[in-house]
Amino acid sequence: MKLIATFISILYLSGNLFAQNPDSLIIKKIYDEALGSGQAYTNLEYLCKKIGPRLSGSQNANKAVDWTKKLMVEYGFDRVYLQEVMVPHWERGAKESAYILDGTTKIPVRIAALGGSIASPSQGLLAQVIEVKSFEELRSLGENVVKGKIVFYNRPFDNKLFDPFEAYRGAVDQRSQGAIEAAKLGALGVIVRSMTNIIDDNPHTGGMRYQDAVTKIPAAAISTKAAELLSQKLGMKKSPAIRLYFKQNCKTLPDAISYNVVGEIRGSVSPERIITVGGHLDSWDLAEGAHDDGTGITQSIEVLRMFKSLNLKPRNTIRAVMFMNEENGLRGGLKYAELAKQNQEKHMAAMESDHGGFSPRGFTIQESPTAMLQIAKWKHLFEPYKVTELLSGGGGADIGPLKTVVPEIVLIGLKPDSHRYFDIHHASSDVFENVNKRELELGAASMASLIYLIDKYGIE
Known about the structure:
The protein has 16 helices and 16 strands. The chain is α/β, with parallel strands linked by helices. Strand 2 (97-102) and strand 3 (105-108) form a beta hairpin. The radius of gyration is 24 Å and the shape is elongated. Mean pLDDT is 94; it is low at 1-18.
């Protein structure tokens, strides 16, 4: 018994010594700061409630630029500045209206114009509906069937897929390219099933594209609840008796001046070497852009604030970037990469948070097996906080262009538990009240901890 007790004591002491290594102590301080004195949640509330929706080119986007710059100046970051960028300026206009016309009965349904779409005719658009699940099915019908109709894309998320983002990627081409493919066959307009894996009555907007030499037709998202109803009606009566009416009032204005907002803590040893952390400041106009991407913005600012508060003096420059125009153009990310090349900046790594402010589970690493192995060696430091998933994947849309100008850069994405993300993605429900304070703070702490390790040890 004495031998067993001695062995247990040795294990306890060795484990305790291991837990007290300098890196684990610093990371514990970071999590303590985030959970005990964090300001990300308060900042997110201001961004959502005092400023609100921040579509590129809007007055609210300008207010968000001014506020985030002022906030980082007040935090005392070593340098805070703007990067000018021209962005698209699309406006939704008066609220959309739509109904299913079943004989003489009008059944109202909820829609939202897709970002970048043209308006419907001033009197609205009323036509028969062609329901399809794929572009292949659409093309097989041919122009004789499609011409003069409204195409209804109704391919749902594949809920058997564990990763909601994989399900999203399997459906989103309907939204982004649907108007082009339908117009090629003479369709008058398109309605797209909202990009979500739940059945509710919130239409989810998002970006769409047109193609030169192909007629532009109006495009809107329809709520999944309404999509189910429309599909049911079409299945019951395959005749001209079922028609759809929709009216939208959107327009595209000339490009507008906007800005990326940048804050830095200058490196104490190699200030010319840069670690970037960021998210996108713009949001869609239907809601407050809380999870997409207010959480990423406030977490990124919080990373630098915690370095300052804990008196962590980074060896390399840590830079927080609020990118503008991720949602409908990626102009901010492209401008940041352009300026990085022009200024011959030396970027070591870039991290993005743009998958919502839910509980952090780990990180994704883009195209860098060496970096993956290196970060895996730090996994034990994150185990107390359950942030242990390390997967190959994209770093993020805004930091992606950096790879083309700095091929050696390591791109990293925060990976939260995103099973609820598409419940609110691009919908009116993406509001501050749907963000959990503790989950948001844990994400900020996880980001700051990995940046601390990269700064201290470097990364390949």
